[in-house]
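Many introductory courses stop at the sequence. We go one step further.
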Amino acid sequence: MNASDIFSPDTPANQTLRKELAPTDWVNPTPQSKYNLVVIGAGPAGLIAAAGAAGLGAKVALIEKTAMGGDCLNVGCVPSKALIRSAHAAHAARTAGKFGVSTSEPVVDFSKVMNQMRELRARLAPVDSPDRYQNELGVDVFLGAGKFTDRQTIEVGGVSLKFKKALIATGARAVDLPIPGLKEAGVFTNETLFSLTELPKRLVVIGAGPIGCEMAQAFVRFGSAVTLIEAECRILPREDEAASTIVKQSMLADGVETICEWKTIKVEKIGEITHAHLEKDGKSRVIECDKVLVGVGRAPNVQGLGLENAEVDFDDRNGVTVDDTLRTTNPHVFAAGDVAMTLKFTHTADAAARIVIQNALFKGRKKLSRLVVPWCTYTQPEIAHVGTYEHEANIQNIPHDVYIQKLDHVDRAILDRADSGFVKVITAKGCDKILGATIVAENAGDLISTYTLAITNGIGLAGIANTIFPYPTQAEAIKKTGDAYSRTKLTPFVNSLFEKWLRWQRG
């Protein structure tokens, strides 16, 4: 993540963002003699750990070399979801006829869309600002590059910070794919995409994971001709296949061209036109476009930290090596977030930071493996998931049952004209213990929390069946999976007992 990418173009909103998150007139404080916790990296993991530790009375220092807020605020969740919401608005206007509302083809002012995104991002920035962390939360904030000089010292801005414990939370960056010509063609990543000022007429997106699919759908709704390229056999290849199929159908309806099982072997720019060269089974094809977005691959930020000096093991691919308590090979140093964890989400970084606070400052034994982590891809419809997938249960030979509730049998989904989706729940064989759930729906990211709460607290499908859900809501699909489990208890034997009892009551 580079400052030039975050704060470009030089608009009033971006000027505000820079002033809040990377103030040029910031003066680093005089260091304490020793800190309970020194945090390198002011993304979600670092911010939560610093604020939480300081709130408990610890002496805390927070180091950030680029901009407070990390990827999430600057080049990730926040700007991307702002764009997705604008794309939803364009789609709603374009498809209003299905609600009996006549509209003309919407006119998307892309410049205004981008400016609004930047204004919203700047509006959120004060919460993560160095001023707030230092003057309101009591954290010593040092702007600059931090580097370990020994096992319990970090240097920043020419001063040394001694610590009892430290947290590495430097995040990850867009990976440089080994595709010839990418840099020369000036391709975009999630870190540079939000500096766009003009809508590309033709956009090629390499990688049909969450980032690629979200942005492909958003930009086609803005008016770009979008081609989505995926080397594997389908889009969103890690998700439930039936779920990704529904999303693909929605994207095709929007106009996204999807090309799967083709490998991008070269990108070259000839004049003003960029050519993406593809290959499959000895065949080749070329896609012409105006811009290319690479939406795949993240590399941990481990270089330049002096980790060798701290005797912290790491590698360029997997990042910092940690155990289940997030402790590194140096018992004084922990790591959390994208620099050390497989599940690279803001909410897992948040949860991991809380584990670090307990384990580093209070000799806790909280474990990362005990977290129940949901996630969501913000296409339309959304895909959300938590726990074990059905295909994982099959591969691992886990005895299980599957309960599926399609949205075309849920009243609110039908009324919303949003019934192409389903709720799928995986339970342990013969009982109601929930192993995992997948939801495909307009607001799947909100709905999945019910199953996350249930798994975390040991609530099974029977408990969900006994819970009242308001009518009419799409969340009734969750209730119906509980009802489906309850019906399995009505075996022929039980049914015969009920019939005898009721016959006896009739006299």
